[in-house]
Design goal:
Layout (H helix, E strand, L loop, with lengths): L1 E4 L4 H11 L4 E3 L17 H16 L3 E10 L19 H12 L6 E12 L2 E13 L15 E3 L6 H4 L1 H7 L1 H15 L1
Parallel strand pairs: 1-2, 1-3
Antiparallel strand pairs: 3-4, 4-5, 5-6
The protein binds inosinic acid.
Length: 190
C-alpha cells in the first residue's frame, strides 16, 4: 500500500521506512512531484500537522501523514513551541539556542519537553498520534550529534544531552520515535 509522508527530510523518511517494513511503500513529497511550500499557519502542532496532511490529500489525492514538532519550555509559557525552527532566525539552530539560553538566564525552572504530533489521513479518516519526551535545558551546549536544540536538551533519567547520546539511544526515547511507533502500531494493526 502506498502512503505519502509529507516531508523531504531524508533522515525522517529512513527512520519511518525502517520501522514500517515492507507492507507500506512510503513516498516523499519529491516522489509525488510536490515541490511547493506547504503552509503551516495553524498555531498548534496538531493544526499544522493536519494542515500539511490535508494539503497533500486535497491537491495530490494520496493518503498521507505529516508531522510537526517543537520544544516547549515551562518557564517560557511553552515557547518556542510551534516557532521552534524560527525562534531567533530562520532555521538557524545556533541563534535559536543562544536565544533560549538568554531567555532562561534569570529562571530557576529549566524543565522542558519536545512534542511531536503526526496527523494521518487514511481511508477517509483523520487520526492523530503524539509523542512527548520530558527533560531540562542545560546551562550550555554539550555534544556534537543530532540537530536543532539537541545540544541543550537533557532527557529525564539521563545526565547527558540528546547530542551526546547518539541517534539509536535518542530514537528509543525521543518525541519523534514515540509518535512514529504509535503510528506504525496503528498501521500494522489494520
Ligand atoms: P520539525 O517540525 O520536525 O521540522 O521541527 C521543528 C523544529 O523543532 C526544528 O527546526 C528544530 O529546531 C526543533 N526540533 C525538532 N525535533 C528536534 C529534535 O529531535 N532535536 C532537537 N530539535 C528538534
Amino acid at each position: 500500500m502506498e502512503l505519502v509522508f509529507a516531508t523531504n527530510n531524508a533522515h525522517k523518511l529512513e527512520e519511518v521506512r525502517q520501522i514500517l517494513g515492507s507492507r507500506y511503500r512510503i513516498l516523499s513529497l519529491a516522489d509525488i512531484g510536490c515541490h511547493e511550500d506547504i503552509p503551516e499557519t495553524a498555531g498548534t502542532f496538531q493544526g499544522n500537522a493536519l494542515q500539511k496532511a490535508r494539503f497533500v490529500k486535497e491537491r495530490y489525492g494520496y493518503d498521507c501523514f505529516a508531522d510537526d514538532t517543537g520544544l516547549e519550555v515551562a518557564a517560557l509559557g511553552g515557547e518556542p513551541g510551534v516557532r521552534s525552527a524560527r525562534y531567533a532566525g530562520d532555521h538557524d539552530s545556533n541563534a535559536n539556542m543562544d536565544k533560549l539560553l538568554r531567555e532562561l538566564e534569570e529562571k530557576t525552572d529549566r524543565s522542558a519537553q519536545f512534542r511531536t504530533v503526526i496527523a494521518l489521513i487514511l481511508n477517509g479518516q483523520e487520526v492523530l498520534f503524539e509523542g512527548i519526551v520530558k527533560g531540562r535545558i542545560a546551562a550550555e551546549r554539550h555534544g556534537n550529534g543530532g540537530f536543532g536544540y539537541d545540544p541543550l536538551f537533557i532527557p529525564d533519567g539521563y545526565d547527558e544531552t540528546f547530542s551526546e547520546m547518539g541517534p539509536e539511544s535518542k530514537n528509543l526515547i525521543s518525541h519523534r520515535g514515540r509518535a512514529v511507533r504509535k503510528l506504525t502500531d496503528y498501521l500494522n494493526s489494520l
